[in-house]
């Protein structure tokens, strides 16, 4: 069936961010995950996601959050749909928050009830923002295993949100910081809260200093930033020493590394319990359709 030419043009304009993982890389990662889980012959629980990932085919995707191929497909769709939606709106801010009192000890990731946790964060954000502020939020939760300054390792939930004003008014960095900063961990060392304007009304020049090396078009900046909101996998973040960022904030000089050994097992078992889209947080936006072809639409209350 022929597609509408305008739809074709829209599809062609979409480009995943630079260095976005290729299908080949995702397939290799899937193979490594399967090998890691299958080697744990004494761990019956590990065999469940291993079998699922092994069954993943182009004609029948496994739709496991632990599957790098299914996550890649979901993220491609996610970036495309989010960019389309955000391009229609005014200023867009990104907010990154390490949540207060939300750390988990190693071996206890399974205790985190992800849907309930995200619902609680959603409620807290709704309460924190001014009542009359009409905003949409597109975001996700990332959980990294952090070890800073040789301290004890812990799982650290981290929200990454893109916030745009639906009415085109009332949203500013000051409003966001005053409302949301109290939700973040009270520590100056690990940059627990950060907000930046990433798109100005009408896709003007991209601000975001220090985040992405310029020159990138505003669309490319948006795609890159949206891709951060839903990470491909959990990582280990270790950090030594401090750096001063362009924003003049001091923070740990962290470096992401792939998870290994028991931490990788724990992360795969956790991610395997949830589909690729279950780490997403949405406010004022509705999601329709199956994971590989879903669409995002503005909520009814927010349409002009
Ligand atoms: Zn899969």
Summarize the structure.
The chain is an alpha+beta fold and 304 residues long. The chain has helices at 5-13, 23-38, 44-54, 68-87, 114-128, 173-180, 218-229, 261-272; strands spanning 92-98, 135-148, 154-165, 193-199, 236-244, 250-257, 280-283, 285-288, 295-298.
Q: Write down the domain tally.
A: 1
Largest sheet: 7 strands, mixed
* Overall mean confidence score, pLDDT: 83
The global form is globular
As a percent range, the share of strand residues is 15-25%
Structural class: alpha+beta
Secondary structure tally: strands = 9
**Runs with pLDDT <50, length 5+?**
1-12
* Small molecules in complex: zinc ion
Order of helices and strands: HHHHEHEEHEHEEHEEE
**Count of helices?**
8
**Any idea what the radius of gyration is?**
19 Å
Residues in helices, as a percent range: 25-40%
């Amino acid at each position: 069936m022929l597609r509408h030419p305008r739809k074709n043009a829209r599809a062609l304009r979409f480009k995943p961010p630079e260095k976005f993982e290729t299908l080949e890389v995702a397939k290799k990662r899937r193979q490594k995950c399967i090998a890691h889980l299958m080697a744990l012959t004494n761990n019956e629980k590990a065999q469940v996601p291993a079998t699922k990932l092994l069954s993943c085919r182009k004609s029948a995707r496994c739709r496991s959050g632990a599957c790098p191929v299914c996550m890649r497909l979901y993220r491609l769709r996610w970036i495309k749909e989010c960019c389309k939606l955000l391009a229609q709106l005014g200023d867009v801010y990104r907010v990154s928050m390490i949540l207060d009192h939300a750390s988990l000890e190693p071996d206890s990731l399974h205790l985190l009830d992800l849907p309930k946790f995200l619902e609680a964060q959603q409620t807290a954000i709704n309460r924190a923002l001014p009542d009359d502020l009409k905003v949409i939020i597109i975001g996700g939760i990332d959980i990294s295993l952090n070890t800073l300054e040789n301290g004890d390792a812990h799982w650290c939930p981290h929200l990454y949100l893109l916030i745009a004003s639906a009415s085109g008014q009332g949203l500013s960095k000051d409003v966001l910081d005053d409302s949301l900063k109290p939700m973040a961990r009270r520590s100056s060392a690990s940059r627990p809260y950060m907000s930046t304007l990433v798109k100005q009304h009408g896709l003007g020049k991209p601000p975001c200093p220090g985040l992405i090396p310029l020159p990138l078009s505003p669309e490319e900046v948006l795609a890159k930033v949206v891709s951060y909101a839903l990470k491909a996998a959990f990582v280990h973040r270790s950090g030594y020493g401090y750096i001063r960022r362009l924003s003049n904030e001091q923070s740990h000089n962290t470096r992401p590394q792939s998870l290994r050994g028991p931490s990788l097992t724990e992360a795969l078992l956790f991610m395997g319990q949830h589909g690729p889209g279950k780490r997403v947080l949405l406010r004022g936006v509705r999601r329709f359709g199956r994971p590989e072809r879903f669409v995002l639409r503005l909520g009814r209350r927010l349409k002009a």
